[in-house]
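User:
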Amino acid sequence: MMQYEWLDKYLRELDSIERIQIKTKENINDFDGNELLVEAKGAVPRMQDFYFFDKGPIFINKHHRFADMPLHVHSFIEINYVYSGICRQMINGKEVLLKKGQVCLLDTDVPHSILALGSDDILVNIIMKKETFSTAFWSRFSNKGLVSDFLMNAISENQQHDRYILFHSQENENLQWIIKNMLYEFFAPQDHSTEMINAYLPIMFIELMRVYQLDKNFESKDRGKTTSIVDILHYIEENFRNCTLSSLANTFNFNANYLSNMLKEQTGKSFLELIQMQRMVHAASLLKNTNKSIDEIANHVGYESTSFFHRKFKEYFNRTPNRFRNNKN
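Assistant: Predicted structure:
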């Protein structure tokens, strides 16, 4: 299509900064040279927000080639997309290689630098304020069940360790299409381009979560067979009333202890915590969307004692079932 041909030509052409960097091999900032501010002695320079968000909460930029980008941090979320070639970054002191079609999502305040890109190495930065990220992503997944909770917390769980996620998205053609359309709308703006970018953003995150769950596959006892953690969580969602750890392990052909450990490692929750969470989420849905009595709901989600259900529900939602139904704090 013509728009992709235009985009390819635009991204590969030398821009004004690259014409200098290809000769000097020294980094030149995009604006007035004061983008990187050292806030305290010995601190990693911080990229200043106000240069990027004067026209909206999302900013997209082609990373300039031929010079190293020095170590820095920032207070916004950054998504690196490798349009062509490769990109080598140092993130929290660790070298990370990004290949064509891959995406790397960086949390706020993560020290990182980017090694000089070659002529065929095209890296695009999509940056956004934390609240934009929250609106586009977290709100799409909250309170929908175990699977959505797992996907919603995938990034925050990872942040406790590396505070970035590398998505192996090079084979996901749909994601490539989404991102390229976003880039075209930003670099060749027309009527309603801002609205189009804002619409693509949550779709991009949902597609990234599809990639993420494939990255989280792990092997069962059957040699060569893989099972997605998401498949297991789906099963718990559907069978939480009578699912036991033993029955779950038999269904997916795992050793029960191994499965228990894997669930804890991958979700941060024990099997019983996952069961209780799904009971609570389902009970909340019934309270909001049906006229069933609280006794009926308690029984429906697997509690024989209504008083025990009341106690567990209040622990989980910090409200009694009645106050939750009436939307009271």
